[in-house]
């Protein structure tokens, strides 16, 4: 992953720079693709999708109504494929003053890029980096898989490389954990053990 995921993270940071202000976005990045979900509804979601469309030079396919702003598929730089859609809130919530911004999200991605570049590509093949903008803050999560339960500890150690104050604990599906980057950003870790194949 490392260099490939880092290139993906950097490409998404540049995309956010080009978009201008967006509603909060949930990102799922791997070494070759990124899924972006605009967490809004109505006109605000439509404006964000239009800005993403303009920045990528791609048209949204599908319906464009209050619940579905269509789907954007675009090739970004470094052979990264973007798929973007709207994930409207399930129920209405009381609006809060937003403490995050699109430039802050791009800055966070730039902070994460050097860390992802140092991760072990072989042990973390197929891992996903999730960055979610909640409007009041960001959540960063690295999800990885282990071939068997004997590999859980080594995969968790690889996923937590470069993090400080790391804690891990067993779960029914593998290991969860938490650590922090030197800048203080918390990174949540999840390692899932793949089911045995007959």
What does the model show?
The mean pLDDT is 88. α1 packs across α2 and α1 packs antiparallel against α3 (102-117). This protein has 198 residues and is of the alpha+beta class. It is built from 4 helices and 9 strands; from the N terminus they run αββαββαββαβββ. The protein has a 9-stranded mixed sheet with strand order 3-4-2-1-5-6-9-8-7, covered by helices on one side. It is globular and about 50 Å long.
Run of helices and strands: HEEHEEHEEHEEE
Quaternary structure annotation: single chain
Morphology: globular
- Structural class comes to alpha+beta
Mean pLDDT: 88
| Radius of gyration using CA atoms only | 17 Å
Largest sheet: 9 strands, mixed
Percentage of β-strand residues = 25-35%
Q: What is the overall number of helices? A: 4
The low-confidence parts are none
Number of strands: 9
Q: In which order are the strands of the major sheet placed?
A: 3-4-2-1-5-6-9-8-7
Share of helix among residues?
25-40%
State the distance separating the first and last CA atoms.
Answer: 28 Å
Structure described in brief:
With 198 residues, the protein is an alpha+beta fold. Helices cover 29% and strands 29% of the residues.
Topology:
Elements: H1 2-19, E1 25-29, E2 33-38, H2 42-56, E3 72-75, E4 81-86, H3 102-117, E5 128-133, E6 138-146, H4 152-159, E7 164-170, E8 174-180, E9 186-193
Parallel strand pairs: 2-4, 6-9
Antiparallel strand pairs: 1-2, 1-5, 3-4, 5-6, 7-8, 8-9
Helix pairs in contact: 1-2, 1-3
What key attributes describe this structure?
198 residues; alpha+beta; 9-stranded mixed β-sheet; 4 helices; globular
């Amino acid at each position: 992953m490392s260099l490939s995921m880092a290139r993906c993270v950097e490409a998404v940071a540049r995309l956010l720079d080009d978009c201008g202000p967006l509603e909060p976005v949930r990102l799922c990045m791997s070494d070759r693709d990124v899924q972006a979900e605009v967490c809004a509804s109505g006109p605000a979601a439509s404006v964000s999708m239009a800005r993403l469309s303009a920045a990528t030079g791609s048209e949204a396919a599908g319906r464009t109504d209050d619940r579905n702003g269509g789907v954007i598929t675009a090739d970004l730089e470094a052979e990264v494929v973007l798929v973007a859609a709207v994930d409207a809130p399930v129920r209405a919530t009381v609006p809060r003053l937003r403490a995050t911004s699109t430039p802050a999200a791009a800055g966070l991605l730039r902070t994460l890029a050097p860390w992802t570049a140092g991760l072990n590509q072989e042990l973390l093949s197929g891992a996903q980096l999730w960055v979610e903008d909640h409007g009041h803050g960001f959540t960063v999560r690295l999800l990885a898989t282990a071939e068997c339960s004997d590999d859980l500890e080594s995969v968790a150690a690889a996923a937590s490389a470069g993090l400080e104050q790391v804690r891990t604990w067993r779960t029914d599906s593998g290991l969860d954990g938490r650590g922090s980057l030197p800048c203080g950003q918390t990174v949540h870790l999840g390692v899932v053990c793949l089911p045995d194949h007959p």
